[in-house]
Write a structure and sequence with these properties.
With 73 residues, the chain is mainly beta. It has one domain (3-72). It is 12% helix and 40% strand. It has a 5-stranded antiparallel sheet with strand order 4-3-2-1-5. A hairpin with a 5-residue loop joins strand 3 and strand 4 (34-36). The two termini are 19 Å apart.
């Protein structure tokens, strides 16, 4: 069984999925399709620190209108 977390990362939608003992990240396109995100989330990052990790990784993409990382429900 896998655990999926969705995030708005400075205006782009990503999902990070825990499969067995590793994280796999996907970028969600405007057409609703997902593709490999092109970055790695280390296996040791716990669920509750994913937002901070994504913020640290992508903080240079922040804009005045999209200045944060938010977990989506």
């Amino acid at each position: 069984m896998s655990t999926v977390h969705r995030f708005n990362v400075f205006g782009r939608i990503y999902s990070v999925e825990r499969t067995a003992s590793r994280w796999v990240a996907f970028l969600h396109g405007t057409d609703g399709k997902r593709s490999p995100a092109g970055f790695v989330v280390p296996d040791f990052i716990p669920d509750d620190e994913l937002e901070q990790y994504l913020y640290d990784l992508f903080h240079e993409n922040a804009t005045p209108t999209n200045g944060d990382v938010r977990r989506l429900v």
